[in-house]
From TrEMBL, chain A:
This is DUF1501 domain-containing protein. Pfam families: DUF1501 (PF07394). SUPFAM superfamilies: Alkaline phosphatase-like. InterPro entries: Alkaline_phosphatase_core_sf, DUF1501, TAT_signal.
From TrEMBL, chain B:
GO terms for molecular function: isomerase activity. This is Peptidylprolyl isomerase. The lineage of its organism: Bacteria, Pseudomonadati, Bacteroidota, Cytophagia, Cytophagales. Residues 183-241 form the Cytochrome C Planctomycete-type domain. Keywords: Isomerase, Membrane, Transmembrane, Transmembrane helix. The chain crosses the membrane at residues 42-60, 69-93, 105-123, 130-148.
Length: 483, 674
């Protein structure tokens, strides 16, 4: 109690005290300038100025089509005919190599291999194999960089998705989009730098939660702004009846004054963040009508994305909205599409899911390309881990399920400086282990940041006594992915 | 103070004599004081600073008489330190490792500095002239000294760097830059410590007094050995205090030597790890090079508006990118304004902005423009051709959704082969199924003034619908505006159609229509305490019954188990209605059955009503789940104030349910007059 009283009297919180004291220590930096290694800082701790790329970026924006629930690589991008041949036989222990199991298959005494129910075709000059469930994505194979060797540390959805999005399994670290917003700022001052769109497929779904698009310890203005899946993607944005623009302005100015007064008293940085958020909402009032107006989309654009794209809340509609947001300078658009967690009924569920996403995902890439925007927009498509090559539950000829598999799975990227028409990495004949060019989540993050003009070792934030990065203490930029 | 000056001057005489002695006999004496030369870099900056200060004092000396004594002391100190610096310098030069020519210039200019200040102390003439002379000799001596220490090109910065690819020569792209920045300042033509020069490939291959510094594949190569010694070891390289190799740089050198030390080999021929390191180095070296200077911060701030963002492509790049947002707020002035930074702009995004050919004129000023986005603008083929002729550096042009056709784009690409322009996508002729109509109404019990309406997200859609459970086809009733006329409880099945599209899947809607709303409805029988709803009023609240959630009381259904429904609807005035819709739940797996009989009584005296209609719903014959049902019961009567509704519950459950023979539930939702 006494402590709080003291803090109030000093008009300063502990964190602020240390923050400001650190500025004084800046004088010491002078010494380290004269003798570069005076404090043995090393290259990686060098802070870079915020709001600008560290070096000329290849990609200015990211559209992340996150396939939440983990789509199976065996029915999408990793063609393994051996599994069809050996269907029903047990996964050799030499291949499994002590891989831990989830609680869902831990009690299974057999692990019968199961091949893809769907056929594969080769597409484009690259000859990439894509399953028959994704004909539209296959047709643009020469624009894609398919990675078949993604691997992660987690084996269950929550930690894996959190890891994929924030670089740590534990939660409350800033999300990729928040880091981008923090490091690069917003292109369009009238829209948030990080937007989140949610949709739900018809397959077995897994939840999404705000910790996936959190700002973590960063300023809360970097938090992902979730759009509503309703017809009105941003609720309560219009002025209420009887209040005109000038009135709104006056109201915000007065409110800001009160908030600043409050800030003088409690010194809580969140107060300032709140003021900024009100201002952002005010500016959004001018930018959003253009975004949500779909009447200007030509008929053939609608056909390209599929008619669903005009039904609010669907994946296709979100993909179309994502394009519009990205076009309008939103740095990072994050889409989550639920329903890929096919523990059972995989052939049926996967087909429904693919039907929902195939056409519009491919359309997005083609559409960006014709607008001359693909080379500066990085599109990422993929889930948080892969699925097992063996069956979960009862295996029949036309029905099976697959459990979670973290060691190797497939995603694809397009545009934004990645090497087009590439299939990167190789898995063994069982598709179970990586045998060439692994891409760990940390490497993936480092590479994406690199494409955005960020040195992943230099975009840091000091919190609880140490500097944090999206890649924490790991991650390598993979040149093989970069054009 | 005078005493200090006297002692200082005496000491100065001594040092000058020593300097003269050393200069004369420098070839013939051996060093008794090894290492004393290292004091040279320690104090050499003092005479520089003092000399500059003296020159300044000389200018203002007349105005401030008080500084005379300070001036004198400073002069003596400057002379002392410059002489001492020169002496230590001679010792340092004796240590060797420096090129004779450079050393000579530095040595004599340094000596000259000390003489100038010594002479000044002795004669004290025209301080301003001597002061300036002193500074000039200092600059010369300083420059020659810096050239020895930091390399002859120490004044050049912002070197041009090329991007590293797998095709780059590894030695040139990765190894040499490290040696250049971290080693060359002590191992160059002028200064070759340990007899080693690292400035050219030939010198590197020659090695130093310990022989070649690397051997292909040998991890014990001299270079690596010295690099890997602990920092506090005297032989560690680079020496403590100098800029050290980073971990990545050490790894590059190690791997390069380990993998053969081939000076001609390309990056791509090295191991993956090496290539990864190359990309990492790349991050700092990939920068595209622009030879124009950066715009001032003021200019950049001046061209930024809330709807036009102008920012450098990277933090140390002079190149700028401009982007316009929100078409409704486009201001031609902010485009004109950009000419302030015309030299620096390499990208402009005008997508969706109301710009036409006339506005393109401004863009011709932007000679360094590389990327131009004009999607969905009003520019024409002619305008773009004229513009492209004037933009020599343009690499990307985007003109999607303009009047420029694909054949014209082909023409443009031919005429301007350096510019990449994307064609508009032409879709395969494919017929798609249109999405279903979207119900506009939030509630399906329509009030007297409400209509049933549907909409569609695609323009010019035609709706077709049926009310008899059949699938609509091209002969079904047609609606272009999406409004379906409803008389009473109706099951509507509706599809959307449009030429060139397959018809949509049907949407099924059960809709109630209320034309007359009673003043109130009173319950004359008591419902089950489990489902009391809000009494009689819940029969006319326009809320549909909701599904049951376990553990949550459901107040949307009036439920009857031991009594029948008996309700009295009262109008304020005698009202002639056409009929009544009775809405109830059928869920036989939970013993919820339709009433066996519904009676309607009417009249103007509530105590004296007449039976005017009765209806017996069909009882289900098998188990079924949740099914919300409505029944239209036509009424023909004189205008009446009171309508009494009695619904008899099913008292004996049929044999297909578990509780056969017992009484059923009657759950009533709404009573609607049409």
């Amino acid at each position: 109690m006494e402590n709080e009283f003291l803090k109030n009297r000093l008009n300063i919180t502990r964190r602020h005290f240390f923050g400001q004291a650190a500025a004084g220590i800046g004088g010491l930096a002078l010494g380290s300038l004269l003798v570069p290694d005076l404090f043995k800082g090393g290259e990686s701790s060098q802070a870079m100025p915020l709001g600008l790329a560290h070096f000329a970026p290849k990609a200015k924006r990211v559209i992340y089509l996150c396939q939440n629930g983990a789509p199976s690589q065996y029915e999408s991008f990793d063609h393994k005919p051996l599994l069809n041949k050996m269907a029903g036989t047990d996964l050799p222990e030499s291949i499994r190599g002590g891989q831990r199991l989830t609680g869902m298959t831990a009690s299974q005494d057999k692990f019968p291999l199961v091949g893809s129910f769907y056929g594969f075709k080769q597409y484009g000059k690259s000859g990439a194999f894509v399953s028959d469930l994704f004909p539209h994505i296959g047709s643009i194979a020469d624009d894609l960089c398919i990675i078949r060797t993604m691997n992660t540390d987690a084996i269950n959805h929550d930690p894996a998705l959190t890891f994929l999005q924030t670089g740590a399994q534990v939660g409350n670290r800033p999300s990729m989009g928040a880091w981008m917003s923090y490091g690069l700022g917003s292109e369009n001052k009238n829209l948030p730098a990080f937007c989140v769109l949610l949709s739900r497929g018809r397959g077995n779904g897994q939840g999404v939660y705000s910790k996936l698009w959190t700002n973590g310890f960063l300023d809360s203005t970097h938090q992902g702004v979730v759009f509503s899946s309703s017809e009105d993607p941003i609720l309560y944005l219009n002025d209420v009846e009887g209040i005109d623009k000038a009135g709104r302005r006056r109201m915000l100015d007065q409110l800001a004054e009160l908030n600043h007064e409050g800030f003088q008293e409690n010194k809580d940085p969140e107060v300032e963040a709140k003021v900024q958020q009100y201002e952002m909402a005010y500016r959004m009032q001018t930018a959003v009508p253009e975004l949500t107006d779909l009447s200007k989309e030509p008929d053939y654009i609608v056909k390209m994305y599929g008619p669903e794209c005009l039904v609010p809340g669907t994946y296709a509609a979100n993909v179309l909205l994502a394009r519009k947001l990205s076009e309008s300078g939103v740095r990072f658009v994050q889409i989550y599409h639920q329903g890929w967690d096919s523990h059972g009924n995989l052939p049926k569920e996967m087909a429904m899911q693919a039907q929902d996403v195939d056409r519009s995902s491919a359309a997005l890439i083609t559409d960006l390309k014709q607008r001359g925007l693909l080379d500066e927009t990085l599109v990422i498509w993929g889930g948080e881990f892969g699925r097992t090559n063996y069956c979960q539950g009862q295996y029949t000829l036309d029905n099976y399920g697959r459990d979670h598999h973290p060691r190797a799975y497939s995603i694809f990227m397009a545009g934004g400086g990645v090497k087009p028409g590439t299939v990167y990495g190789e898995t063994d004949e069982f598709g179970y282990n990586v045998i060439k060019d692994p891409v760990h989540i940390h490497d993936f993050h480092a590479t994406v940041q690199h494409l955005m003009g960020i040195n992943h070792e230099q975009l840091t934030y000091k919190h609880l006594g140490r500097r944090y990065r999206l890649t924490d203490v790991a991650g390598n930029v993979l040149p093989g992915l970069i054009a | 103070m005078q005493r200090f000056l006297q002692i200082g001057t005496l000491f100065l005489w001594f040092l000058q004599c020593l300097l003269l002695f050393l200069l004369v006999f420098q070839e013939s004496f051996e060093l008794p004081l090894a290492g004393i030369g290292h004091l040279h870099p320690l104090i050499l900056h003092l005479p520089i600073g003092f000399g500059v200060l003296l020159a300044l004092f000389s200018v203002v000396k007349k105005q401030f008489e008080q500084i005379e004594i300070l001036f004198q002391s400073l002069l003596v100190l400057t002379a002392l330190f410059s002489t001492a610096t020169a002496i230590f310098g001679l010792f340092l030069a004796k240590e060797g490792g420096y090129e004779a020519e450079q050393i000579t210039w530095h040595q004599w200019s340094g000596v000259a500095v000390s003489f100038v200040y010594f002479a000044w102390v002795l004669w004290q003439k025209s301080p301003l002239m001597v002061g300036i002379l002193g500074v000039l000799t200092l600059i010369f001596a300083g420059h020659t000294g810096a050239s020895i220490t930091h390399g002859a090109d120490y004044l050049q910065f912002g070197e041009q760097k090329e991007a590293i690819t797998n095709e780059s020569i590894a030695f040139e792209a990765l190894v040499q830059p490290i040696l250049k920045t971290k080693c060359e300042s002590c191992h160059n033509e002028q200064k070759s410590k340990g007899g080693l020069k690292m400035n050219t490939l030939a010198n590197l291959l020659k090695g130093g007094k310990n022989g070649p510094i690397w051997k292909a594949g040998d991890l014990n190569s001299h270079l690596l050995q010295r690099m890997n010694l602990p920092l506090n070891n005297k032989k560690h390289m680079p020496p403590a205090g100098k800029a050290q190799l980073t971990a990545d740089e050490q790894l590059i050198l190690t791997l390069w030597i380990k993998e053969g030390a081939k000076v001609e080999q390309k990056v791509g021929a090295y191991s993956k790890v090496f290539q990864n390191l190359a990309t990492k180095q790349q991050e700092t070296t990939i920068e595209p090079v622009y030879d124009f200077s950066a715009a001032s911060e003021k200019d950049i701030a001046a061209v930024n508006t809330p709807f036009c963002s102008v920012y450098p492509i990277a933090y140390d790049s002079p190149a700028l990118q401009a982007e316009f947002f929100v078409a409704a707020k486009f201001d031609p002035k902010s485009l004109e304004n950009l000419s302030k930074v015309s030299e620096q702009l390499i990208g402009i995004n005008l997508n969706k902005m109301p710009v036409s050919d006339a506005d393109l004129n401004i863009l011709t000023k932007f000679l360094h423009l590389e990327r131009l986005h004009l999607n969905a603008t009003k520019v024409s083929y002619r305008g773009v051709v004229d513009l492209l002729k004037k933009l020599p550096n343009l690499k990307t042009l985007a003109i999607w959704n303009t009047v420029i056709s694909n054949p014209e784009i082909t023409q443009l690409k031919k005429q301007f082969p350096k510019v990449s322009i994307e064609q508009t996508v032409v879709l395969k002729n494919e017929t798609l199924q249109i999405n279903p109509p979207i119900l506009v109404n939030e509630k399906l019990i329509l009030r007297p003034n409400e209509q049933l309406s549907f909409k569609h997200t695609i323009n010019d859609v035609v709706f077709r619908y049926t009310v008899n459970d059949s699938l609509p086809d091209s002969l079904s009733r047609l609606q272009t505006k999406g409004i379906v006329p409803i008389k009473n409880y109706t099951k509507v099945r509706i599809i959307a159609t449009k030429p060139d599209w397959y018809a949509s899947n049907p949407v099924d809607v059960k809709v109630y229509k209320s034309n007359f709303v009673p003043h109130k409805i009173d319950l004359l029988s008591t419902p089950s305490p489990k489902y009391p709803a809000k009494g009689g009023m819940s029969l006319m609240d326009f809320e549909q019954g909701a599904r049951e959630v376990k553990g949550v009381p459901n107040l949307t259904w009036l439920g009857f188990k031991d009594t029948d429904l008996d309700a009295l609807a009262s109008f304020q005035l005698p009202t002639k209605v056409n009929g009544l819709t009775f809405s109830y739940l059928e869920k036989t797996d939970a013993d919820v059955f339709p009433p066996t009989k519904i009676e309607i009584w009417a009249g103007n005296d509530s105590k004296n009503l007449k039976l005017i209609a009765s209806f017996s719903p069909i009882q289900p014959k098998e188990k079924s789940g949740y099914n919300l049902k409505g029944i239209n019961i036509p009424i023909s009567t004189v205008p009446s104030t009171y309508y009494r509704i009695k619904a008899h519950r099913n008292k004996k459950l049929p044999s297909f349910v578990d509780n056969k023979g017992k009484g059923a539930w009657l759950k009533v939702d709404e009573v609607v007059f049409y």
